[in-house]
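Slack export, channel: ligand-projects

TW: morning all. Re-posting the request from yesterday since it got buried. We need the structure predicted with the small molecule present, not the apo form. The ligand is manganese (II) ion; the SMILES is in the block with the sequence. No rush, but it would help planning for next week.
GE: picking it up
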Amino acid sequence: MTTIFVADLHLCSQRPALTDAFVHFTEKTVKGCKALFLLGDIFEAWIGDDYLDPALQPVVDALKKLSQNGTKLYFQHGNRDFLVGQRLMDEIGAVLLDETHLVELGSQTALIMHGDQLCTDDIEYQKFRSLVRSNNWRTDFLDKPIAQRLQIAEHLRAQSKEHSSQKSQEITDVNPDAVTSALTQAKVQLLIHGHTHRPNIHEIELPNSMTAKRMVLGDWGETLWYIKSDDNGCHLIEENI
Ligand SMILES: [Mn+2]
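GE: finished. pasting the full token output, ligand included:
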């Protein structure tokens, strides 16, 4: 049985080729699989389940089709689409997961997350994250009219782009101690995440002299990235769009 993981597609109306690529991916690669895990930033922005950019309708339809055909869908929030809620989950037939989750993959267990919570050196971002994930901020934002929410989202996105361009590579990558402590707490030897847009497989020494693996999904753009887990193991795959 095959399980697929993706993150950081950043789908939006400005990138129609990626939307097409994702629909194709669901039909070609994910169809017939046991499960698809969407590990955050699937959407470039999400202002609430009561608004869907018409350009993203094919994505919703493709996901709905997968779940109707028996593939289990799971969704974790990214830093762009943290306002995805139960209404979208019900529509596409997916389960919304907590920000960290354990998945059984054959003989091993993987800890999965978007990955932004591991970037603890980016103090400014972590402050922003706590703010926008609070119930107060969320309720207040979702109460605003759609036009105003779209404006605020656009503004936040521009701000985030400007800030990230001024930050060093180390600050915006995961903190090694945060990785070790996440693995140790979860008592597993495999971590799968996205967010950093630095696709790779890292070997990690744990304090108990065990080793672990950190598999980082890549963002979609020039190519598409996914992790495939089946009887042959767990592999990070890059494909042309
Ligand atoms: Mn992200």
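GE: first-pass observations. DSSP finds seven helices and eleven strands in the chain. The mean pLDDT is 96.
TW: perfect, thank you
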